[in-house]
């Protein structure tokens, strides 16, 4: 039986994500610029905690001036008509596939139901947002205690802000908003500025990968900034058979790559020995068919030697393939990479 030190934090288990969430980006991740703007009430637990990328924790015996400290957003017990709400700005404008409304550690204080509305706004002003035209994208859905609630969204529009409604009150430990950024590179198409064509904030996404036994999925390669630790990257298991590990990535917009950066930050005894990049301009197909095709794509970057805990920059070695939409990032034979950057110019329309 597992033991637990009294008073030590208990962390919530990760959600078992369906495919639509695994193939998406958390648009409410503060590392993309997301933030909680306001709440009708957050007496017991500050609303900004709800967007923390780390798993929710419960600390026995921890109290503050308002009562038991809870890791999430928690309002006081409502004694009047109405319901509580929170305004959230997404990190980037995006199409939403679904949500994880996580009530981990909220047992007698979770909300019986939650709904979510969305709007498009150029301002974060609370009064202006309250007066905005809101569209319900998740109808009132029943909640349970101490659980991940994975709920799909039928909307195909792109949104910038959300209004999260709790009926009538209670606590939400974490809110994940799974979707895909859109349109962020369109304004840069006419310029000569080099942009990271595969960055998550620019609409890049991880389409498929053969393994992600340690750390995050291959999507971690596309996050902003350098990795914060060895868990903040894409790491595969130790390969015990011939071959190599790989992932297929879709650019935020078609473009021509001029410089490639491979960052092995924090990976020291487990970085790949070598890497290469293949690429293609794909105009159709499904994720599965594109993955199959990727084995035969042209070489954008031939095999290059890697070192531990370092940023590797390749310019002269990058082949002149013209505009591309997808890349296959190969690591030999296995290991961990923190970030991949594909610096280039957006294809002019």
Automatic annotation (TrEMBL):
Catalytic activity: allantoate + H2O = (S)-ureidoglycolate + urea
Gene3D superfamilies (UniProt xref): Galactose-binding domain-like
Keyword Hydrolase: yes
Highest taxon above the source species: Bacteria
InterPro entries reported for this sequence: Allantoicase, Allantoicase_dom, Galactose-bd-like_sf
One of the protein's GO biological processes: allantoin catabolic process
This protein's pathway: Nitrogen metabolism; (S)-allantoin degradation; (S)-ureidoglycolate from allantoate (aminidohydrolase route): step 1/1
Annotated family: Belongs to the allantoicase family.
UniProt-recorded name of the protein: Probable allantoicase
Species for this entry: Thauera aminoaromatica S2
Gene that encodes it: alc
